[in-house]
Amino acid sequence: MKTLLVLTCALLSVSAHAGDLVKDVRARLADAPLVRGQFEQKKTVAGFKKPLVSKGDFLLARDQGVLWNTRTPFASTLTLTRKSLSAQQGQGGAAYHLDSTKEPALAAVNELLFALLAGDVSTLQKRFKVEGALVGTTGWRLELTPTDAGLARVFKHIQLEGDAYVRQVKMDETRGDSSVILFDQLTQTPPPDGTEAERLGK
Fold first, then answer.
1. CA 190 to each of CA 37, 163, 184: distance values in angstroms, whole numbers, following the listed order
2. For 108-132, what is each residue's pLDDT tens digit?
3. Phi-psi category of residue 176: left, alpha or beta, with phi > 0 → left and psi -120 to 50 → alpha
């Protein structure tokens, strides 16, 4: 499947200048204040042949935050808002909470994660050189190279692919590790339930 996607992108891609590309990608992305769906993350660690695979579901509420629920192989929850990051390992497991108003670096990470998940190209341009191409009549792909010194110490580059939504994020780290996150079953409904709203309100 991965090979098929690469070949399809190669055959259908149309080059665009950076300024026009950003404008065109934004035009193809859905203006969705809320997106929820399923994810599969494969992390390849340098020195290990078999990738680490995790699956779960997520909710992105543009004005509130991101809920990231890993279901397998181990249950964990991550809550990311503009002001904080909270995580818990399973029911009653170890938990921690970080306040971005007291951690400037966390605020920058939060901004980056929001931008990656939402396909916020304008925000990404502040910290990355953005290159890429349009794919067919609805798709696009972007290659992000860090221009921010702090991010450059962590990432070689980040690749995004999508259509009306971000469908894939690939992150290559300077130490040799890499992660690929695939998004599926994306929808703009239903709105946050009581438990989700409580998490996002923290």
1. 11, 21, 16
2. 778 888 899 888 888 899 899 999 9
3. left
